[in-house]
Each structure stands twice: as structure tokens, then as C-alpha cells.
């Protein structure tokens, strides 16, 4: 028999009365809000209770996580519970300030309850709840998620609307903003042309990554635990023209970029430098490759006669480069490619990279450098989650090397990059191994490099080919094969996007004159070929906002620089179809 403790029943009752469910929309009756899901939707069947439940489907590189951040009290105990169905379904909490917790089931053919408890740390006021499946194991379901414990605060109303919004310093690429403090606000949100771009805690912010000579509108809201206020009155600002030309005025208003197979032959055949038509404004010599993956020592070897019987002599090759340059063309060395893995893991490798690349540029009198790192060249170490302040050595050393080369050769140095979509646009959903681990550490790994070099970058031409489905800013997956894929991928670069869904960590847009669209020249060149009519639709939509399909762009960019293709050789093999499409469009 248990001994009765005087007052214990009353204390237990009082504790229960003080408890509350901190999870919002845990039954998914109001759609997904405020959950942030990588691949989720609501369904009406099966459900555990009510009329809706979560359905989320993991992919090969995505565990289909749904998460929300809630308010809690420090030094308090909470019980997290939820009902799930499916295989390998997880329920957990992070940011507890003590020991983060999770629970899971290997197989739940019918609804199964998961539950766990934790105690918050001495300074913990926010905790993130999450549920996810496992990679490639099929859809899972979740319903009636709850977090029961002491209420997270007494705030019941969102703050009032901020007033006094005004512009401060305006440059070619940024606008400073300030506003009057709002009583009861714990933070603010800044909107540019209706899109949230910053979440400052103070009453000022600088919105960067803007385009020169462009008009923008701005609003601000105030936030607290109870929600977000309505938006303030709008202020506008027009950025001035750049005084330095932005580094890409050396190119024509609309440029055609192509890779020339200079060090190897394949089914497309060898094309001599002198035989490249005048339509090509930037010619990337493919490829410079390292002596070893981590050496940083880059070598450029021209195709041997045994492999390329019609290869020209070194003297003729260099003379043809000079002739192209005299005609206003830019000739670059492209580093990497499919087989050229480059990992600058040490400062010694970084310095070897700078030295060896300089030798190639000087030997052939080239105009600059193209970074075509693929495969496992770039990845992010665990815990490296801020693209603006990377810590991973291969990232930090590459940035340092490129800045050194830019400083050495000056303002006329042409710097371009050709990442795959997985390393750039897929960063909208995932960044590195993620806050909870388990993701591909290469995802989004180009973003810190692009961001750090954005003021030195002449062109970014992402490879919109050999790509899996990528989620666009409409939160829909887009696949290769038509204009919509190119439109959605390019819109992300020109609009900017929150990295890994974090509205407080936005990758700023690039200038349109810094962006070209990468496409295969022919069906033989790579997966994702689109016919000339689809190329035209893409350009019409992005530069004129006509001929658009299902994807709604966030702007119109007549200054879009142009097109890139793999490759000059494959275009020649296909009768110069890609070149002719570019010439007929831009005249």
C-alpha cells in the first residue's frame, strides 16, 4: 500500500491545470502551417482523428522532415507525443538545451503512438519539434502531434504594425532600412517586393544582393510568440548604376558560352580553336585537372594526336586564342569536369592551385577561369550550416584561392562557375548534412563560394541538365525536359531564396547580367536536352514575361546575360542548332 502524502493530489491537479499543448496544428487540420516540410502534404485518409493527417514521402536524398518551432519555459519537463503510420517513422525534439530526444518505429502498419520526454535547459525558450521518415522507404503518416508541459509564455496577441519605415543608405546593390520600435515585439520581418528577405531582431536592416538601376518596394512586420503583425506602409527605393561596371561589362549584353573539348576526344569529335564560330563569346577550355584529388596542382594537357588526329599545333592553338581575343572573345581555362575532382583540403593545396592555375593562364594568355567542380569536390563538414560564414576547409580554401587570383589579375579577370543544380538550387530545401544530420553533405555546397565571390563573379551558369527533380520557389518539384525547369531554376537565382527553408538565412539574388542558363547542345550531349522552341519559351518568359508556362516568375529580367552549353563540339556535331537558336533570338 502506498502512503498518502498530504497535498499531493492538489499539487498534481495544479500542475496538470498549468500544462498546455505547445504544438500548433498538431492534427494538421489547418493544412501544413506552421510546419515546414520538405516533401509533405495533408490527406483525408488515413487519419488518426479529425479530418486530416500528414503524408510525407522520403526520396533518395531526403527524409521528408516536417518541423515547427514552439515556445517553452526554461527548466521545465515536456512530453512529446504523436501518432504515426509507415516504416521508419521518427518523432523528436531539438534545441532543448539539455539532451535532444527522438523516438521511432521500424514498422507501423496501423496508427501507433510514439512518445518521449525531455527537460528544457536553464535558458531555453524555443524548441523545434520534428517528424521524418527514412530515405527511399516510402510514404509515412503523422497525426495528433502534441507537446504537453508548462505554457511557453503569456503573449496572446501579435504586435502592432510597425511605423516610421524609411530608407537609409542606397547603393547599387543594397538598401538600408530603419523603423520605429514596436512594444512587445521580439523580432521583425523585412519584405522586398512581397517576399520575406530578412528577420532582424533590431529596428534596422540592410537588404543586399540587389540589382543596379532597379526600383524596389519594402515593408516590415513585427513578430512575437503569438504571431506576426500586418505589414507596414510601403517605401520604395531605386538603386543607382554600378560605378565599376560590375566586372561583366567586358561581355556583350547577351553572351553565348560554350565548352571546347581541348584535352580529350569523344563521339563529338575534336574542334580546333580557329574553327569555333564567332557567335561564341566565351570559350571554356575543357579541362584542367589535378595531379591528385587533394594536391591542388592543376595541369592542362592538350588532346594528343593519337586521340585527336586533327589537333592543331601548340603554336596554332595559341595563335587562334589571340585571334579570338582580338575579336572581343574571352577564352578561359575550365577546372574540374566530371572526372577532375578537386579538393583543396589544406592551405598548401590552396597555394598550389593558385600557382598552377596562374601558370596555365600565363602560358596561353587566357582571360580567366571557370570553376566546374562536380562529384565530390565540394561538400560541407557537419555543423557548417551558415553559407555566409563557411568553416569547411575545401570551401574556405577555394574562396581564398579565387580571391587571390582575382586580385592578381585585376578587374579584367573573367571568373565563371558551372555548378550542378544539386549544389545550388537544391539548397532551398537542404544544406549540407542538415541540423539533424543524415543528409548529403554536398547539397548546396556551392552557395558559400558563389556568395563570397558574388562581387567578383562574371557569370554563373548552373548546369540545368543531368539533374534530378528540384523544388522551385513555388514549392513544387520541377523536372528536366521543358522550359518550366529552366524558368524555375533561373528564377531562383534572380529572386534569391531561403537556404534550407530558413527565412532568416536568405541567399541573395544575383544580378541578371551575372546569370546564363546552362543547357545541353544536343540529345547526345547530356540528359535534359530541350528543343529550340523550349529555349525560346524560356528566354521569352524570363526576359519579357511572355510565353510562360505553369511557373510564375518573381520578376522580369531583360538583362539576363544569355546561354551556356555543353558543348561547342556537340553543337557542331548537331549542325550548330544551339548556336543558331541563340543568334536568331538575340540577333
Automatic annotation (TrEMBL):
Span of domain GH18: 254-587
A Gene Ontology MF term for this entry? Answer: endochitinase activity
Key words of the record = Carbohydrate metabolism, Glycosidase, Hydrolase, Polysaccharide degradation, Signal
Which domain of life, per UniProt? Bacteria
Q: What class of enzyme is it?
A: hydrolase
Where would one find the signal peptide in this protein?
Answer: 1-17
Provide the residue span(s) of the region labelled Disordered.
227-247
Biological process (GO) annotations held by this record are: polysaccharide catabolic process
- Asked if the Swiss-Prot or TrEMBL record annotates the protein with the keyword GTP-binding, the reply is no
Q: Which SMART domains match?
A: FN3 (SM00060), Glyco_18 (SM00636)
Which residues are in the Fibronectin type-III domain?
Answer: 161-242
Keyword Ribonucleoprotein assigned to the entry: answer is no
List the EC numbers from the record. Answer: 3.2.1.14
UniProt feature, compositional bias: Polar residues: 227-241
Q: Which InterPro entries match?
A: CenC_carb-bd (IPR003305), Chitinase_II/V-like_cat (IPR011583), FN3_dom (IPR003961), FN3_sf (IPR036116), Galactose-bd-like_sf (IPR008979), GH (IPR017853), Glyco_hydro18_cat (IPR001223), Glyco_hydro_18_chit_AS (IPR001579)
- PANTHER family in the record, alphabetically? ENDOCHITINASE
Give the family from UniProt.
Belongs to the glycosyl hydrolase 18 family. Chitinase class II subfamily.
What name appears for this protein in its UniProt entry?
chitinase
Q: Source species, please?
A: Streptomyces seoulensis
**The organism's taxonomic lineage, starting at the top:** Bacteria, Bacillati, Actinomycetota, Actinomycetes, Kitasatosporales
Amino acid at each position: 500500500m502506498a502512503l498518502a502524502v498530504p497535498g499531493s493530489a492538489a499539487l498534481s491537479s495544479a500542475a496538470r491545470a498549468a500544462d498546455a499543448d505547445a504544438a500548433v496544428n498538431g492534427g494538421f487540420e489547418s493544412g501544413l502551417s506552421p510546419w515546414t516540410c520538405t516533401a509533405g502534404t495533408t490527406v483525408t485518409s488515413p487519419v488518426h482523428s479529425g479530418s486530416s493527417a500528414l503524408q510525407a514521402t522520403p526520396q533518395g536524398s531526403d527524409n521528408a522532415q516536417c518541423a515547427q518551432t514552439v515556445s517553452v519555459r526554461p527548466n521545465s519537463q515536456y512530453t512529446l507525443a504523436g501518432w504515426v503510420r509507415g516504416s521508419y517513422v521518427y518523432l523528436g525534439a531539438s534545441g532543448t538545451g539539455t539532451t535532444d530526444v527522438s523516438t521511432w518505429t521500424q514498422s507501423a502498419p496501423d496508427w501507433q503512438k510514439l512518445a518521449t520526454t525531455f527537460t528544457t535547459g536553464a535558458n531555453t525558450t524555443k524548441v523545434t519539434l520534428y517528424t521524418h521518415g527514412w530515405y527511399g522507404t516510402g510514404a509515412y503518416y503523422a497525426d495528433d502531434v502534441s507537446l504537453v508541459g508548462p505554457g511557453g509564455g503569456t503573449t496572446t496577441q501579435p504586435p502592432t504594425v510597425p511605423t516610421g519605415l524609411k530608407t537609409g543608405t542606397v547603393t547599387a546593390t543594397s538598401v538600408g532600412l530603419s523603423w520605429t520600435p514596436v512594444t512587445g515585439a521580439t523580432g521583425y520581418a523585412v519584405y522586398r517586393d512581397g517576399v520575406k528577405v530578412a528577420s532582424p531582431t533590431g529596428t534596422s536592416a540592410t537588404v543586399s544582393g540587389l540589382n543596379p538601376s532597379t526600383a524596389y518596394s519594402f515593408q516590415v512586420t513585427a513578430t512575437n510568440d503569438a504571431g506576426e503583425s500586418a505589414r507596414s506602409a510601403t517605401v520604395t527605393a531605386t538603386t543607382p548604376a554600378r560605378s565599376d561596371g560590375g566586372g561583366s561589362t567586358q561581355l556583350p549584353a547577351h553572351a553565348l558560352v560554350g565548352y571546347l573539348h581541348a584535352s580529350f576526344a569523344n563521339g563529338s569529335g575534336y574542334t580546333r580553336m580557329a574553327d569555333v564560330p564567332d557567335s561564341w563569346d566565351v570559350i571554356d577550355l575543357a579541362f584542367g585537372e589535378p595531379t591528385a584529388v587533394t594536391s591542388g596542382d592543376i595541369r592542362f594537357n592538350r588532346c594528343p594526336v593519337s586521340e585527336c588526329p586533327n589537333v592543331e599545333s601548340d603554336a596554332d592553338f595559341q595563335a587562334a586564342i589571340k585571334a579570338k581575343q582580338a575579336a572581343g572573345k574571352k577564352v578561359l581555362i575550365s577546372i574540374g569536369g566530371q572526372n577532375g575532382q578537386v579538393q583543396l583540403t589544406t592551405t598548401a593545396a590552396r597555394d598550389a592551385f593558385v600557382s598552377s592555375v596562374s601558370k596555365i593562364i600565363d602560358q596561353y594568355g587566357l582571360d580567366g577561369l571557370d570553376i566546374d567542380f562536380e562529384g565530390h569536390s565540394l561538400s560541407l563538414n557537419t555543423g557548417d550550416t551558415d553559407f555566409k560564414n563557411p568553416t569547411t576547409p575545401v570551401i574556405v580554401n577555394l574562396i581564398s584561392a579565387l580571391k587571390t587570383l582575382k586580385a592578381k589579375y585585376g578587374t579584367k579577370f573573367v571568373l565563371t562557375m558551372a555548378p550542378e543544380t544539386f549544389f545550388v538550387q537544391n539548397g532551398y530545401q537542404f544544406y549540407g548534412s542538415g541540423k539533424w544530420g543524415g543528409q548529403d553533405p554536398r547539397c548546396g555546397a556551392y552557395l558559400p563560394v558563389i556568395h563570397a565571390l558574388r562581387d567578383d563573379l562574371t557569370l554563373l551558369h548552373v548546369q540545368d541538365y543531368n539533374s534530378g527533380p528540384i523544388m522551385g520557389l513555388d514549392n513544387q518539384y520541377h523536372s528536366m525536359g521543358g522550359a518550366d525547369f529552366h524558368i524555375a531554376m533561373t528564377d531562383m537565382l534572380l529572386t534569391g531564396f531561403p537556404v534550407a527553408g530558413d527565412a532568416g538565412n536568405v541567399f541573395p539574388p544575383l544580378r541578371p547580367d551575372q546569370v546564363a542558363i546552362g543547357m545541353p547542345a544536343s540529345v547526345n550531349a547530356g540528359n535534359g536536352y530541350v528543343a529550340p522552341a523550349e529555349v525560346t519559351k524560356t528566354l521569352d518568359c524570363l526576359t519579357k514575361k511572355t510565353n510562360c508556362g505553369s511557373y510564375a516568375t518573381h520578376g522580369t529580367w531583360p538583362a539576363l546575360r544569355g546561354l551556356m552549353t555543353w558543348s561547342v563540339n556537340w553543337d557542331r556535331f548537331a549542325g550548330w542548332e544551339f548556336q543558331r537558336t541563340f543568334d536568331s533570338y538575340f540577333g
